[in-house]
Design goal:
The protein is an alpha/beta fold. It contains six helices and 14 strands. 38% of the residues are buried.
């Protein structure tokens, strides 16, 4: 008997190159403790893009824009659901210019583009689409399966999960991992993309116990500027 197809089926993805301005000028939540190795960041990003292509996605690769050091984090710029794209009005005013190129790209793909209006603001990376509904926040929880959400074990993550359970209309299976960084995964076409064992040593065994195809990816360099796996693509 064939396995049931995943609900999370995608045909394409939008990614963007890494500008050389990123190591020194990208937004950070805190002061950097370690410099970004630009060449290594590019190599890790290329492996990420290759994984998406290997899963059958048509990947649109936008060129890096030196004016926008964070432009590799395309997920923040738009939220796509079916044939509709919400063009976000980013919280950081210095990033809002990234929306111009993204709007054109989304329209060229035939998507209906809805633009967020002032004074509303949103980073697309804050929206977790579960197929059933849209929830928050990907920095501490993401989908690890059709009805499974992987959640970090920090107090912030636990509190977010508790709030989500109260407000969600659907019941989800919870998969707990020791590190919040491990809770950021990409579940696409039945395959789970997660961080490498070297980056999540306390959580890797949890992922090893999950049935189904999985791909380990390194993201050590972009993590230094608060980048995670979901940040790097818009799935379509």
């Amino acid at each position: 008997m064939k396995p049931k197809p995943s609900k999370f089926q995608y045909v394409g993805a939008i990614v963007c190159g890494i500008p050389s301005s990123l190591p020194d000028a990208a937004q950070r939540l805190s002061d950097p403790s370690e410099a970004v190795n630009y060449n290594k960041a590019v190599q890790q990003h290329q492996e990420y893009v290759r994984a998406l292509k290997d899963l059958g996605l048509q990947v649109i690769e936008l060129p890096a824009d030196e004016k926008y050091p964070d432009c590799v984090f395309v997920e923040d710029v738009a939220v796509v659901c079916d044939k509709v794209a919400l063009l976000a009005r980013l919280g950081h005013t210095t990033r809002r210019g990234e929306a111009t190129k993204m709007k054109t790209t989304l329209q060229q793909l035939g998507l209906k583009v809805v633009e967020m209006q002032e004074p509303a603001a949103l980073d697309g990376g804050d929206v977790l689409f579960t197929v059933t509904e849209h929830l928050h926040l990907k920095s501490m929880m993401t989908m690890a399966g059709d009805d499974m959400i992987v959640v970090g074990e920090s107090e912030e993550a636990k509190n977010a999960w508790s709030e989500m359970e109260k407000k969600a209309r659907f019941r989800y299976e919870k998969l707990s991992v020791s590190e919040d960084t491990a809770a950021n995964c990409v579940f696409v076409n039945g395959t789970l993309l997660h961080l490498s064992a070297a980056e999540i040593p306390n959580s890797i065994e949890t992922f090893n116990k999950i049935t189904g195809p999985k791909i380990e990816l390194e993201n050590s360099e972009l993590h230094k500027v608060d980048g995670c796996l979901t940040c790097l693509s818009i799935l379509i």
